[in-house]
Design a protein that fits this description.
Layout: H1 35-38, H2 41-57, E1 73-76, E2 82-85, H3 88-95, H4 99-111, E3 126-127, E4 130-134
Antiparallel strand pairs: 1-2, 1-4, 3-4
């Protein structure tokens, strides 16, 4: 570079020239605008067709907000008493914490893995001294009073 030469940095477009993907921090041109500000009436009608398809093909056996259906869980104490809770999140609130550990216990008790050494089936997985089962799994009915 010689003295007095003007050098301009590259212009930031927000798009990766090699891949065509938007870069992190890119702000779209239509952010915060209404459809009427950047779409014609015919384009608005074409875009609105997607909503009809969503309603037409929306699953009926789970909630509109997607995700997995909540499964009721059963907490069985060592003395044989039990509590039915509507889903794993409520069970975690009931015992204080540990949503993932409760799910792990329910899953392992449901799968009924056989121990290779002894050949026994373990359905007594616990978390915080409580055995956790899915309500749809019938094995917990044998563990209560």
């Amino acid at each position: 570079m010689s003295y007095g030469e003007l050098q301009l940095p590259p212009v930031y477009t927000g798009v990766n020239k090699k891949t065509g993907k938007f870069m992190k921090g890119h702000i779209p041109a239509n952010k915060g605008k209404k459809w009427s500000e950047y779409l014609s009436k015919s384009a608005q009608k074409r875009c609105a067709k997607g909503w009809k398809n969503l309603e037409l093909h929306r699953p009926t056996r789970r909630p509109d907000n997607a995700g997995r259906c909540r499964k009721p869980v059963v907490a069985v104490m060592d003395d044989g008493s039990w509590v039915v809770l509507p889903y794993i999140g409520a069970a975690a609130e009931w015992c204080g914490f540990g949503r993932h550990n409760i799910r792990r216990c329910c899953k392992l008790n449901h799968l009924r893995h056989v121990n290779k050494k002894t050949g026994a089936v373990n359905t007594d997985h616990k978390y915080l001294g409580i055995r956790w089962y899915y309500e749809s799994d019938d094995i917990w009915t044998e563990k209560i009073k």
